[in-house]
Amino acid sequence: MNPDEMDAVFAALASEPRRRILDVLKKEPGCNVNRVTEFFEDIGRVAVMKHIDVLEGANLVISEKVGRERLLWFNPVPVHMIYDRWTTEFSAYWAGKLARMKYRLENAPVPIDKKKRGGSRG
Predict the structure, then answer these.
(1) What domains can you pick out in the chain, each with its CATH number?
(2) What are the HTH arsR-type domain coordinates in residue numbering (predicted)?
(3) Under 8 Å between Cβ of 10 and 57
(4) How far is CA 39 from CA 2, 18, 25, 119, in A?
(5) Are 6 and 82 in contact (CB under 8 A)?
(6) Could you read off the pLDDT of 34-69 as tens digits, one per residue?
(7) For 56, which DSSP code?
(8) Which strands form 61-66's sheet, in the order they lie side by side?
(9) What are phi and psi of 120, to 5 degrees?
(10) How many other C-beta atoms lie within 10 A of the C-beta of residue 18?
(11) Angle at 49 between CA 42 and CA 3, to 5 degrees
């Protein structure tokens, strides 16, 4: 993901109505614009469509034109890519810590970490 794509995702997620639209699409994948609009009493259909356009520009929403309808799906891939960028190292670290804690609580021998020289146990 290049910096411009990441900026578009963060800008799209900075808006509360856009996050609500993503919640709707997560709950009802493949719904049309009119269905999304029903969840908004405070803004009209045109405003909802503009928010959807921003979400599509950030690749957070995928749409398909079927006849006269525009069906929408939430695309979680950009959010997951951002999550992975900053958490992968920490996830591996904490997964290792939790695994060692599990072995200690079960009084089982802790497997030797091959990355560490000398292979300490526990």
Answers:
(1) 3-75 (1.10.10.10)
(2) 8-89
(3) no
(4) 33, 12, 11, 57
(5) yes
(6) 999 999 999 999 999 999 999 999 999 999 999 999
(7) H
(8) 31-32, 69-74, 61-66
(9) -70, 150
(10) 21
(11) 110
